[in-house]
Amino acid sequence: MIEEITKEELLHAEQGAGLVEFYTPSCPHCKVLEKRLEDMAEKPKDLRIYKMNVEKEAQLCEELGIRSVPVLIRFEDRQEKERRVGAIPTSEIEQMIK
After folding, report:
1. I need a labelling partner for 39 at 20 to 30 A (CA). Which of 18, 20, 77, 96 fits?
2. In the predicted structure, residue 51 carries a pLDDT above the cut 80
């Protein structure tokens, strides 16, 4: 299962790599992406996978320039390294984590 994360938790996350899906509960494309991420989260990796509700964390999403959902961002050591928008296929998610 993918862990829900808040702005504070993201800002104080451990060093290393992580993927964060920015979503809204009513977004059908977000649900598709979340299912793909859940399937990947079950496989052992050094990568942590999280999700963040943009309705609850609107200020952070504005700071990050998130204007639509879903958005998937790869962070390394709390810095954004890569961003994809939409319900991207599993192959693209795998490319992000290589």
Report:
1. 77
2. yes
